[in-house]
C-alpha cells in the first residue's frame, strides 16, 4: 500500500473541520427533531392575556399556569381573592393539556359521559380532567399549554384559557405576517361565550350568539358582514332609530327601529350591512349563531 504524504495534497485544518461538521450534521439529522417550545416571554404574554380577559369578564378569581412543551412550569400568577388550591389545579390542567395535546375539556366530557377509566390513567402526574387547560400550538406543534382555575365556573376557566391561546396565536401571526388559523375547539368555545376571534386594525371577526332580540345599532365606522351558522332571525335594516344614544365613538344604540326593511335570516345566509346603516335583530330563534366580520377599511 502506498501512503501519500500530506505535503503533496495540502488541506487547511479549517476546511477539514467544516467538512467534518457537515458530515456529522447529515448523519445526526435523522436522529433528532427540532420542535418549538414556549419561552419566558411567551409565557408572560399568555398570562397577561388571560388575567386581562378574566378582569374584563368579571371573573371572581383566577390562577393561570403556563408550561413548556415538556410540561415544565414556566409561569404562575393569580388574581387576589382566588381560592388557595387554584394554583395547583391550574398547573395540573396545563400539564394535562400539553402532555396529551388536547384541551382538558375533552377529558372532563369523557368522564361525564361515563368513561371513568380516564381517572385511572397511569404515570401522568398530575392528570387533571377538568375544563380550563388548553394547548398552545406553534406551526402545527404543541409548544406548551395554559391552565386556568378559580374563575366563576369551569366553563369560564376554559373560556379564559381559550381566549389567551387564541390571542397568542393572533399576535404571532400578526408579527410574522402569516395566516391566522384558529382551531375548531377554540371557535366552538367562542360561539358559546359570544367572543372575538380576531381583532385587527383593518377588521374584526366575532363568533356571535343571540338568544333574544337586541337593541337597534348603527356602526358609523364598520361595515358588518354576517354569515349565519345556525338558527333563524328577523332583522330590520334601514329606517329610523328610536331613542338613539351614543355608547362609544362611532357607535349608536336605540330601543328599536321605525320603518326599514325586514330580512329573514337562516342557516347559510350572508348579509352585508354598510357602515352607517341602522339595523335591529327584532326576533331571534335560539340558538342563533353567526360570524360577524367588521370591516374597518
What is this structure's SSE topology?
Elements: H1 13-28, H2 40-56, E1 63-68, E2 73-78, H3 86-100, H4 105-112, E3 133-138, E4 141-149, H5 154-176, H6 184-193, E5 195-199, E6 203-210, E7 216-219, E8 223-237, E9 240-242, E10 245-248, E11 251-254, E12 256-258, E13 261-265, E14 270-273, E15 279-295
Antiparallel strand pairs: 1-2, 1-4, 3-4, 5-6, 6-15, 7-11, 8-13, 8-14, 8-15, 9-12, 10-11
Overview of this structure, please?
With 297 residues, the chain is α+β, with helices and mostly antiparallel strands. The protein has 2 domains: 40-194, Haem-degrading domain (Beta-Lactamase); 203-295, Jelly Rolls (Sandwich). It is built from 6 helices and 15 strands. It has helices at residues 13-28, 40-56, 86-100, 105-112, 154-176, 184-193; strands at 63-68, 73-78, 133-138, 141-149, 195-199, 203-210, 216-219, 223-237, 240-242, 245-248, 251-254, 256-258, 261-265, 270-273, 279-295. Strands 5, 6, 8, 13, 14 and 15 form a 6-stranded antiparallel β-sheet that branches. The protein has a 4-stranded antiparallel β-sheet with strand order 2-1-4-3. The chain has a 3-stranded antiparallel β-sheet with strand order 7-11-10, with no helix packed on it. The radius of gyration is 26 Å and the shape is elongated. The relative contact order is 0.11. Mean pLDDT is 84; it is low at 1-11.
Amino acid at each position: 500500500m502506498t501512503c501519500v504524504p500530506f505535503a503533496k495534497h495540502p488541506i487547511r485544518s479549517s476546511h477539514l473541520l467544516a467538512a467534518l461538521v457537515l458530515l456529522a450534521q447529515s448523519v445526526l439529522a435523522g436522529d433528532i427533531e427540532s420542535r418549538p417550545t414556549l419561552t419566558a416571554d411567551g409565557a408572560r404574554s399568555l398570562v397577561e392575556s388571560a388575567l386581562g380577559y378574566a378582569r374584563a369578564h368579571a371573573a371572581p378569581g383566577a390562577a393561570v399556569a403556563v408550561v413548556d412543551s415538556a410540561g415544565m412550569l414556566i409561569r404562575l400568577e393569580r388574581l387576589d381573592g382566588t381560592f388557595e388550591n387554584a394554583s395547583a389545579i391550574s398547573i395540573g390542567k396545563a400539564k394535562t393539556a400539553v402532555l396529551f395535546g388536547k384541551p382538558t375539556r375533552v377529558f372532563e366530557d369523557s368522564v361525564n359521559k361515563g368513561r371513568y377509566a380516564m381517572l385511572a390513567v397511569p404515570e401522568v402526574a398530575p392528570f387533571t380532567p377538568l375544563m380550563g387547560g388548553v394547548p398552545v400550538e406553534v406551526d402545527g406543534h404543541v409548544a406548551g399549554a395554559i391552565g386556568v382555575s378559580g374563575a366563576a365556573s369551569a366553563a369560564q376557566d376554559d373560556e379564559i384559557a381559550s381566549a389567551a391561546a387564541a390571542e397568542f396565536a393572533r399576535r404571532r401571526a400578526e408579527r410574522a405576517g402569516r395566516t391566522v388559523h384558529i382551531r375548531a375547539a377554540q371557535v366552538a368555545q367562542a360561539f358559546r361565550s359570544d367572543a372575538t376571534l380576531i381583532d385587527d386594525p383593518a377588521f374584526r371577526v366575532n363568533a356571535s350568539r343571540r338568544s333574544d332580540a337586541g337593541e337597534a345599532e348603527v356602526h358609523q365606522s364598520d361595515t358588518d358582514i354576517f354569515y349565519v351558522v345556525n338558527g333563524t332571525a328577523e332583522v330590520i335594516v334601514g329606517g329610523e332609530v328610536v331613542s338613539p344614544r351614543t355608547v362609544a365613538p362611532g357607535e349608536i344604540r336605540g330601543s328599536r327601529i321605525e320603518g326599514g326593511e325586514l330580512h329573514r335570516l337562516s342557516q347559510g345566509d350572508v348579509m352585508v350591512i354598510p357602515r352607517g346603516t341602522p339595523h335591529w335583530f327584532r326576533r331571534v330563534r335560539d340558538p342563533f349563531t353567526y360570524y360577524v366580520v367588521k370591516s374597518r377599511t
